[in-house]
Design goal:
Elements lengths: L1 E3 L5 E5 L9 H7 L1 E3 L2 E3 L12 E4 L8 E5 L1 H11 L8 E5 L2 E5 L8 E6 L2 E5 L11 H4 L6 E12 L4 E3 L4 H7 L3 E13 L3 E5 L7 E21 L7 E22 L17 E22 L6 E5 L1
Parallel strand pairs: 5-7, 6-8, 7-9, 8-10, 11-13, 12-14, 13-15, 14-15, 15-16, 16-17, 17-18
Antiparallel strand pairs: 1-2, 2-9, 3-4
């Protein structure tokens, strides 16, 4: 998946199926800037735009901030799914305030927002149905993601990277990897500006985050895990971060979260290694940092 900003008027979200990088060196060699846009994987020649595109209004959406547009987004993405393997597809959201409940993105989709477009999550919990937990506990991994030039305000983590929950994530064995995050402004009263876990049993690696501005938030940067998760978080680089009015700038917790059931392996210990956090500046910070590790946690190495 790729999120980026094209050269003209809108913010772009796209998905790709390129192979994930296998090391941080490989990761760095794959990030290429095309204009002001992130590019994941080798540089492609020729037009970058997907071959087939529609506008959300073609599916009945109304950007008045009041009309619920969940069905419009769901129907548009369902329609565009047939073009995913035919050069990709693009869904354009024009200027307006677009109220919606949950909808899922697909691979090879570009969700392109006009600079004056705002997608608003419905405050009605009825519009956010509970998903059947099995086997979805293991299936929340992403590869080849670029998130660029976004403003997000939310009640939970602004950006969070996960990879499966306990035995389900270990069994599914799909790591989240090859992820670039840049030029993000985020605000959250209940979470972190950028977080990892606590569901990370399939593994998280090759993450680079730069140019983050976190304001009016509970946490700035957070890593969460607990015994029983298994998996790993490794090769993470976070730099050029500014914070204002954040309760805790950096928090690492090794005993966070619950388990989906009692069938998890208590000997499955997560491994955390090669984490770099640098060039962080903050004002109005409550606590600079906190690290709480669980007894028996397998490994927390090379944290700097």
């Amino acid at each position: 998946m790729r999120l980026g900003r094209p050269q003209k008027r809108h913010t772009t979200f796209a998905a790709s199926a390129a192979a994930a990088a296998q090391s941080s060196a490989a990761l760095l060699s794959r990030w290429t800037t095309v204009g002001r846009r992130c590019h994941v994987g080798p540089v492609k020649h020729g037009p970058e735009a997907p071959q087939h595109g529609v506008t959300i209004t073609e599916f009945g959406a109304v950007g008045d901030g009041v009309t619920l547009n969940t069905k419009a987004f769901q129907n548009a993405i369902f329609y565009l799914n047939s073009f995913a393997d035919k050069g990709g597809a693009q869904l354009f959201v024009p200027a307006g305030r677009w109220l919606t409940g949950s909808f899922s993105l697909i691979s090879h989709l570009t969700l392109s927002l006009d600079k004056d477009a705002v997608i608003i999550g419905s405050p009605d919990s009825f519009h956010w149905p509970v998903i059947d937990p099995l086997p979805s506990y293991g299936r929340d991994s992403s590869r080849n993601v670029c998130i660029d030039h976004c403003y997000v305000t939310t009640g939970d983590d602004v950006i969070v990277i996960k990879s499966g929950w306990d035995e389900y994530g270990i069994s599914f064995a799909h790591p989240s990897s090859n992820i670039s995050i840049s030029n993000i402004t985020g605000e959250t009263q209940g979470g972190a500006g950028i977080a990892f876990g606590s569901e990370m049993s399939g593994g998280i690696s090759e993450v680079r985050a730069e140019g983050l501005h976190i304001v009016n938030s509970l946490h700035g940067i957070r890593i969460k895990t607990t015994p029983g998760r298994g998996g790993y978080v490794k090769n993470v680089y976070i730099a050029d971060v500014s914070m204002d009015n954040v309760s805790m700038a950096i928090r690492i917790t090794g005993n966070y979260g619950e388990h989906p059931d009692d069938r998890y392996d208590r000997k499955a210990l997560p491994m955390i290694s090669n984490i770099t956090i640098k060039d962080v500046v903050g004002i109005n910070i409550g606590v600079a940092g906190s690290k709480v590790l669980a007894k028996g946690l397998a490994s927390w190495n090379e944290l700097c």
